[in-house]
Amino acid sequence: MDERPLLETLAARLRERPFEVDVAIAGLVGLVTVVAPAQSYYANEVPAFVLGVLLVAPLAWRRRAPVPAAAVVTVAGLLELVAGTDFLAANVSALLMVYALAAYAPPWAARAGLLVGLAGAVLAGLRWYATDSSDALLVTVGAIAVSVVAAWALGRLRRSRLGEILSLAERARLLEVERDQEMRLAATAERARIAREMHDVVAHSLSVVIAQADGGRYAGRTDPEAATGALEAIAATGRQALTDMRALLGVLREDRREEYAPQPDVAAIPVLVDDVRASGLDVDLLVEGEPRAMAAGPQLAAYRIVQESLTNVLKHAGPACRAWVRLHWRPDVLELSVLDDGRGAGAVTGDGLGQGLRGMAERAQLHRGRLEAGPRSGGGFGVHAVLPLGGAR
C-alpha cells in the first residue's frame, strides 16, 4: 500500500485545523515539560507548576493570536525570574513563541520577539548561572541566544514559505478569473459571430426565395418553363440555406465530430453573383488586379459583405435596378464595392434593427479593415470595404 497519498491526506486535514493542531502541540509540550518533571520540583513546587502552565498554555494560540500569546509567555518568564524556582523545562515554550512571532505575527512583533528573546537569554544567564565562572556564564548565555536566533530564523523561513503559498494561491485565483473572463469574452464573440452568420444566411436566402417566387408567380401565367425554373431555384436556395444552417448550429453541439463544408471565400463570389443574377437582379462583377493569397477570415468577411450588400439590393433597391460588384486586388489589401442605382436612401434603414450594416462593419473591423456604406450622390446605394490580406488581430 502506498503511504504517500495517506500522508498527504493527513497533512491536508491538519492544515485545515490549525487551532486544533496547536492545542495538541501545547498539550504535548505541557505533558513533557510540566507534568512529567513535576516530582523534581523539590522547592516551590506549586509556583513552578503554575508558571510552567502559564508558559506552555499560550502555545495553543501561537497562530491564532501570536502577539497576546507571546505577551503571556513574557510575563510568565519575568515572574519566573523573581519566583525563586529552578530553571524550568517549560522555558522551551519561549523558543516556540519566538518562532511563532517570526512566522505569523506582524513584522514589528517579529523583531520585538527577537529582541525580547535575546534579552531573556541574558537575564536567564544572570539569574541561574551568575555563580558559575564567567566562561560558563558566557557559554550559557551564548547557547540560549543562538537558540533564540535559530528559532527566529526558522520562523522567518516559515513566513517566506507562507508568503509564497499565498502568492501562488492569489496567482491561481487571478488566472482562474482571467480564464473565466476569456471564456465569457469568447462566448460573447462566438454569439456575435453566429448572429452575423444567421443573419447573412437567412436574409440572403429568403430574399432570393422571395424574388424567385414573385418572378415565378408572374411567369406562371405565360411561361410555365420559367415558373418551373423559379421553383427549382427556390428549392436549391432552400436546400443550401438548410445546409448552411445545420453547419452553423452544429458548432453549438460539443459532442458533434462531423466535418462540415469549408466556409465560402472570395473565389465563391462569382457563384454568388450568378445566383443573385438568376433571381432576377441585373448585377455585374468586375475583378481588377491579380488575385493574391488571403487569410481565411478576411475571405469569409469579403464574401459575407458582398452577400449582405446584394441582399439589401434585392430588398430595398426597388424594381428595374442594376448592381455592380467590384473586386480590386492591391498588394496588401482587397478593396470591394457593391453599388446599385436603386432607391438608395431606403437601404439605410436595413432590416429595421441595423443588423445587416452593423454586421458588415463588425466583420471588417474584426480583420483590421474598414467599411463605409450610404446613399450615393448620383442615386442608389453603395458599400465600400477594405480588407487586409492578413488575419485578424
**Mean model confidence by pLDDT:** 79
State the secondary-structure class: alpha+beta
Q: Reading side by side through the largest sheet, how are the strands ordered?
A: 1-2-3-5-4
Written as H for each helix and E for each strand, in order along the chain, the element string is HHHHHHHHHEHEEHEE
- Rg: 42 Å
- End-to-end distance, in Å? 54 Å
Keywords: ATP-binding, Kinase, Membrane, Nucleotide-binding, Phosphoprotein, Transferase, Transmembrane, Transmembrane helix, Two-component regulatory system
GO cellular component, one term: membrane
Domain Histidine kinase/HSP90-like ATPase: 297-391
Catalytic activity: ATP + protein L-histidine = ADP + protein N-phospho-L-histidine
Structure, described:
This protein is an alpha+beta fold. Among the domains are: 6-131, no CATH class; 266-388, Histidine kinase-like ATPase, C-terminal domain (Heat Shock Protein 90, 2-Layer Sandwich). 65% of the residues lie in helices and 9% in strands. It contains eleven helices and five strands, in the order H-H-H-H-H-H-H-H-H-E-H-E-E-H-E-E. A five-stranded mixed sheet has the order 1-2-3-5-4, covered by helices on one side. Strand 4 and strand 5 form a beta hairpin. Its EC number is 2.7.13.3. It catalyses: ATP + protein L-histidine = ADP + protein N-phospho-L-histidine. It comes from Geodermatophilus aquaeductus. InterPro entries: DUF7134, HATPase_C_sf, HATPase_dom, Sensor_HK_TwoCompSys, Sig_transdc_His_kin_sub3_dim/P. One of its GO terms (molecular function) is phosphorelay sensor kinase activity.
